[in-house]
## 1
Amino acid sequence: MRIVVKVGTSTLAHATGNTNIRRVETLCRVLSDIKNAGHEVLLVSSGATGMGSGKLGLLKKPEDIATKQAAAAVGQCELMYTYDKLFQQYNHCVAQVLLTRSDIEDPARREHLRNTFSRLLDFHVLPVINENDSVATEEFFIGENDSLAALVSTIVDADLVVLLSDIDGLFTANPHQNPDAELIEEVREITPEMRLKAGGSDSGFGSGGMSTKLNAAQTAMDAGIDMVIANGSHPEILYDIIEGKKVGTRFLARKESA
Ligand code: GLU
């Protein structure tokens, strides 16, 4: 299976913005094991701005563009240093790929990107992808990594996209506000009602939220790719997801009608 796994800032970092070492270590161990089992893995990792902010001693998410871009530049180094070191323990090689919207939308650049990913996977490398936050300006901005993960999955013709988040999946209502909210295990079609109920990000440093996840799901489903939203607090959950067990919310790929 070719799998794109996206981890959000809330999974990778503590509320302080500093790395959640135990979580990141577990994630790298599980992804290494999944690769050892013969799957191809691409990791879309957020956390650059959050980690950079932590390293620069900023107490909250920066708001102005220059500080955001500076924090992302600092944090991206920290992120790759951490991944390189941890994956190396399990004999896996990582590659950094930083993208803007135009790299994905321009047909020629998209084709180059597809070839680069394909060659990296031939070499059994684990690509670690993020938006190129320190140079992306508004017109080329994707803005959040849920959509980036779905777009990457369409470029590499993935079999599955997994968004690991701080929430168990899609609920019938906001579970933080409504104790009766129920987890929806399977979605065949994203309804206007789901979109209406989906909210923005609750986490201090992240940029996503349920509405960006639904957009990502739509992109993946339209491309014939299943997508799962699951809680990343225990990255071992990825084993169950790959085995097709009922975990989180699975958005089923649209099947071409005969
Ligand atoms: N690219 C951003 C970062 O690494 C994160 C975007 C997101 O939270 O989805 O900081």
## 2
Amino acid sequence: MKAIEIRNKYLNFFKAHGHQIIPSAPLIPENDPSVLFTTAGMQPLVPYLLGEKHPEGTRITDFQKCLRTNDIDEVGDNRHLTYFEMLGNWSLGDYFKEEAIAMSFEFLTKELGIPVEKLSVTCFAGDEDAPRDNLTAECWKKAGIPEERIYFYGKDDNWWIAGEEGPCGPDTEMFYDTGKEPCGPDCQPSCDCGKYVEIWNNVFMEYYKSKKDGYTKLKQHNVDTGLGLERMTMLLQGKKTPFDTELFEPVMKRLEELAKVDSIESRRIVAEHLRASMMVIADGGKPSNIDRGYVLRKLIRRMARHLNKLQIDLSELSNLIDLNIDTLKEMYPELVSHRDEIKQVIIEEKDKFMKTLVNGEKEFAKAIQKAKQENKNVIDGQTIFKLYETYGFPPEITADLAEEQGFKIDTSEFETLFKEHQEKSRMGSEQKFKGGLAEQNEVTTAYHTATHLLNAALKKVVGKDVHQKGSNITVERMRFDFSCDHKLSEEEKQQVEDLVNEWIRQEIPVTVQEMKKEDAIKSGAECMFIEKYPDIVTVYSIGDFSKELCGGPHVKNTGELGKFKIKKEEASSAGVRRIKAILEK
Ligand code: SER
């Protein structure tokens, strides 16, 4: 059965069971700059899970385009994907465990024809927050799953929540037995050996978790389910990896024909990242140096690097995109209507990357030089990390390059730095998922420093009487209100923008000092509401043009900011103008 047939069967099955089919929400959440990408089918439905009335009723089904990038560095193995499609059915205060399980069982065994012997299920074992889910186990038994294939696990396995706060509850997961030999006498669904593959998750959402109040019961009980389409397709077709299904096969084959170097891992990375980038671009994504733009950039660059590694001419990209659109057009017609844009964005980004690659190689040459001077034959972890973070060099490329010159790389130091970095980005995406902004993350920190630069530039260009009247920062942009009696002319705007960019180009250190409030004011430090500050204050200075009382945080050097761009200048209130600006690279 092809993926599209599974999708259609699913939607029609739930339609026949009283569900309304709704379209997939875009991969880029609408009107929500605080969330990076749609990562689960329930995400666009959160208001309705919390009790708002859904216009289509209480039974909903859909396919949802999802992107999860926490494990982006794992792509290339036999299972990880960043982009995937999740099929889901929802009860918004309608049916609960019995009916949900009966429908799941019927769909798997009757519609998809999976033999009951292939299925195992898991249920929540209970703890101090919620009781053992015996009812769910009973429902499975009634449906036809024998007791010995019903397992109970704790919160780590059988509880679902997006992030740290939000609607949540015990879940029951369905597993498919691939027929592999058990890895030992204790082999069971929770085991990672590959015998059991999770195919579907039913979450019984009847709690809300808040950091403040812990778990409380929701107004209504909901069911949230998620079935990964690529994985199901692979299993039903008896394929070993999603890359062997019709979703990837044509591109994988073409890559194999074109490649001069044989690497299945690189072929998978190219195929996977190409598909994911195309889906993001079709939904309006653009590469940049922050947040979702950065994710897209990383996907495209990683793909380009692996095309290089395979020694495939990068001019093939356009044909590969066409081939991919051809493969996926029935499932995602938006790829066809965005063909030109997809090509333009990917090819432009690839070109930019090729330039960075040259710079990265220069940086690498410097590191070799330094190591030689110090009589070392090892490239340190900091350098490997910098090459990875700034120039998109994976450690394996650095290792290859190093080896050619008779050097080794210090992977253990790199691993430590990399783990810290991964942990940070994981925390970041979790935080973003729940909609709350990590206020002091890297992006907002950069915008915070840009705010000081803008303030100083306005004073130089427009006049000393310009004073800050307010500011607001999101991960997407900064907003700055200032006293000014006229609309800025095009020329003024340009000068302000140029000046900020000049300061960024000069890579000026940002310094911080603690001092008495009165001394700070005497020294000419700016501040918006003097009474708001304690007696001892921190003062941030940049060059000799910016000095502000401020709690921080700020970047260490203006060079970290990227390109500053004024998007809009408008009236805010009488005598107050407002600038919206962004940082990009
Ligand atoms: N929200 C759950 C998941 O993502 C079920 O849809 O697995």
